[in-house]
Amino acid sequence: MSDEIKARFPGEVDEVHPAPFITIPPQPTEKKPGQLTEAQVTQFFQEGYVAVNDFFDTKTELDPCRDAISVMVDQLADKLYDAGKIEDKYEDYGLFQRLTQLEKEHAGSNILLFKSQKMPKAFCDVWSNDRMLNVMEQLLGPDIAGHPVWNLRTKTPKSDAVSIPWHQDSAYFSNESYDHMIVTAWVPFLDAIPGNGCMQVVKNGHRKGKVANHTCCRGPTWYVMLEEEEMEKSLDVDMKKDLETCPIDYGGFLLFHNLTPHRSLENMSNDIRWSCDFRWQSPSEHWGFYGLGEGVPMRSAKDPSMKADFEKFFSFDRKEQWQKRYYRQEDANDPFDTTITGPWIGRWEIVNHNKHTEAFKPFIVTTSRRTTSYIYDIVVYTVSKNHSAYSACTVCDTSSYTTILLLLSHHFLSTYLPELLLPRASMPQTKWRPRWR
Ligand SMILES: O=C(O)CCC(=O)C(=O)O
């Protein structure tokens, strides 16, 4: 028998948890507005996705989101103009063109808007929409919370920065997200079609209950990637049969979850494909969000009068925490910096280095029970910076670092641990020095 030890990254696991993803929970006995049909609920659990059409009243529920996006674009134009980054604010352009014009004059404008997100009230209203929560009740049970990860997608035409490859959402979350469902409603603010970058899913990709091995990062971006070959091998899907393209008209949404492999197509149109992905889960489950704040409870079986407390939810500055923990400070303080980095970068093999992977600064939590895995993140990250020494990962045995943890203080760990490990792992000389020193 071979003694070969396989190098593993923190995101890689053998564990599988199919039950929560394929088992329909007890359905509400009461008929409620907006509820999915039995066939839709069945499809969601069997195939890992379902398209829901004609759900929103576009005039009263989605047009306010469009208006809120226009305000955000306007604010961005002002900011760029005031800083002398652009010479024209392109005020005559509408919602589906203006950001493209800003992007032409100041490359990265679409990333700045993506990065600067503050959730406007119109979006909160969609997120906590009563009919939407009736849908979530069918998928998650009677206790529902909004998950803290949401994204306004600024998919400008033919832009590499917003070209999102195959992935499962759990690849971005911590391992504690692997065993329970986090539902996404992907809501487009126009008719999303293949030509303007609608979503694709790989149906049945959730049925094994597994997070497949991802790599990082696609081209010049911060996105993790899931190779089709890897999906076929570890998720038992057949890309020829299981790939589904999901056009969604304005007023509808696409439902999928954290184990559904998905991506969006290129936007080959002349319009910006605006969309927002909202998430929900049971409040009793782990958020999988690296301790960066909790979700917002929205519905409770015990307290039928519960309303989402957005004031409390937004009082915690996730962005500030995020930047403190994972960014080099010089990037975090520049309002026009288009670098995006985060904990997911330390979770997978970095096969393509770029400014986003370079900016990643691993974060250590000495007080949490997950500490050992954070240390492991750093070791793997450190070693993977030098590909010729990649096999040195095999010496990184998580349990042996538990002892170090007990003996060393947080300061000592974050300052000296990588240096101590490098010679031990017989790393060849490298010019790279840890960023967090
Ligand atoms: O909107 C997109 O282009 C991709 C969305 C996505 O990957 C997600 O919602 O997880």
Automatic annotation (TrEMBL):
Gene3D superfamilies: q2cbj1_9rhob like domain (2.60.120.620). This is 1-deoxypentalenic acid 11-beta-hydroxylase. Its cofactor is Fe cation. It comes from the Eukaryota. InterPro entries: Phytyl_CoA_dOase-like. Pfam families: PhyH. The lineage of its organism: Eukaryota, Metazoa, Spiralia, Lophotrochozoa, Mollusca.
